[in-house]
Amino acid sequence: MRKITCFKIAFLSLLIFNLLALPIPACSPALADQPQAAPSQQAQDPQKACDPYENSNRKIFKFNDRLYFCFIKPLVQAYDNVPTPVRKVIRNGFDNLQVPAHFVNFVLQGSPQMAGDEMTRFVINSTVGIGGMFDVANNALGVPDHYADFGQTLGKWNVPTGPYLVVPAFGPFDQRDLFGYAVDKVMDPLFWIPGQWWVTIPPSFVNYTSEASVHSGEYETLKKASLDPYVAMRNGYMQHREHLITNR
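The chain above was modelled as a monomer; its predicted structure follows.
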């Protein structure tokens, strides 16, 4: 138990240290020193993101693409055979585990109403909702769910995004959001599950599969509709994150 927990903490500490040491290049909107993009790329990339590591990012993007079609997609297709009510219960349970992190982030963002909603949801769903498997707070009391992460919190604090990064098996991030992801993982109860790897890994694996199932097909739709899927994914990610920060 202690070895597993120490390993996780050491891994995240190393990740955070490397991210803090990663230089944040100045990316001006004009990008005057950049070569002129092809017309087809300009159509998809009107405001080029801060992407100084594009060559390595594209290689990882190709790796993730193969991983998706060879492993993740078949896994999600098999998971989709599980009855919908069961999948809903599983998703609710894992979502409930994220509520404490949402609460902390809303407090740090200065959003007391949303923080209060999240605390109310967690207390009700963890008790009456049997560990969060049933969303009693929303279905019976009308208390809506909200989303917040530490990358979003840093954005609220005007911390710059830093360079765009593609992480093997996890996909797109920027430097700010990858740091935020590491902080959120420390607040995830699954991170602190005691026991050997065969006890700690299966819940995280089921959570990953469940989350992937919710967004099944989105990547393939984006890829088919894009002349350059890498650019489309990058722009879509950056726009989505900006929307979360500015418009909730």
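The chain has eleven helices and two strands.
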